[in-house]
Amino acid sequence: MLSELGRSVGLDATAIGRLKNPVHRDAYHDWVQKGMHASMGYLKRTLKVRMDPEEAFPWARSVVVAVLSYKTPESPSWKTGRPPEGFNSLPRISCYALGEDYHRLLKERLLLLHGLLERLAGKSVQRRVFVDTGPLLEREHAAMAGLGWVGKNTCLIHPRLGSYVFLGTMLLDLELPDSQGFSEIIEDRCGACTRCLDACPTGAIQKPYLLDASRCISYLTVEHKDAFQGSEASFLGPWVCGCDVCQAVCPWNVRASLAVSPEVYPDSCLCGVGLKRLEELDLHAYTMLTRGKAFDRVGWAQFQRNLRAVSNNLKAQ
Ligand code: SF4
Ligand code: SF4
Hints:
The protein contains 15 helices and 10 strands. The protein is globular and about 60 Å long. It has one domain. By secondary structure, the protein is of the alpha+beta class. It has a 4-stranded antiparallel β-sheet, sandwiched between helices. A two-stranded parallel sheet has the order 3-10. A two-stranded antiparallel ribbon has the order 5-6.
């Protein structure tokens, strides 16, 4: 029932999660204590909330987890486990960044779902909606809600939609009965596959399920705000914003169905843009090009820093 309500507001999969301590609580705690979150200080500051969401939100009775697919024909998906010829000779932007800003999309849809649930409950329902920025371990809650498993590349993998998915969570002070959408937890289906570990260009996936953010291109291009040090600029390779490699090689993404929501499809102005065109952008043109996209999270100074690194990497090939 919940999944049908979710679909009616444009969410590809929706389930009721358990607002319990995360299954991989200790592993996450160690990861932060070892400093593998790099300069994402908010992960350390909100560690207690992430570890004990029940204590942090005592009023919450349930957590709704929603999935929105962004896999389109332009999303890299490599059956061979390797990039196609010439892929690394052009500047690249991760496919999640090319469509409309998913924070807004998911939030709007979760609020619509909240309205439907209030109507069904016949009373007002307290809520908190989080998309990416909240102090919840969204992937963990999605896995606990039976929406997939956390793969060796640390992404949530939905069995039908793959890992090119956005996640959103909504805490409610409403007890949702099991019959409304509790699903069985899905066992890890990575099996003996190691494609993501083998393909990661920087060795950021140190071992299955352990990601060193300080070596990850997604982190370096988007979250990291300072000038690059040491090898960091060379780590970027062709990636100006984000990195799709460990998802592009994942067999679950090769077979995943395409996104239904037209809003997540890439803006044609941002598809296959060459180095020269990117280098010609001024602040105004960049603002117009990225406005309303997830790409907008990469500020102008960061974009110029990333582009300088990518330009050097491409010319050095
Ligand atoms: S996003 Fe790129 S750099 Fe980061 S772990 Fe995946 S393949 Fe490696
Ligand atoms: S590439 Fe293989 S090991 Fe990595 S997340 Fe996908 S299925 Fe799991």
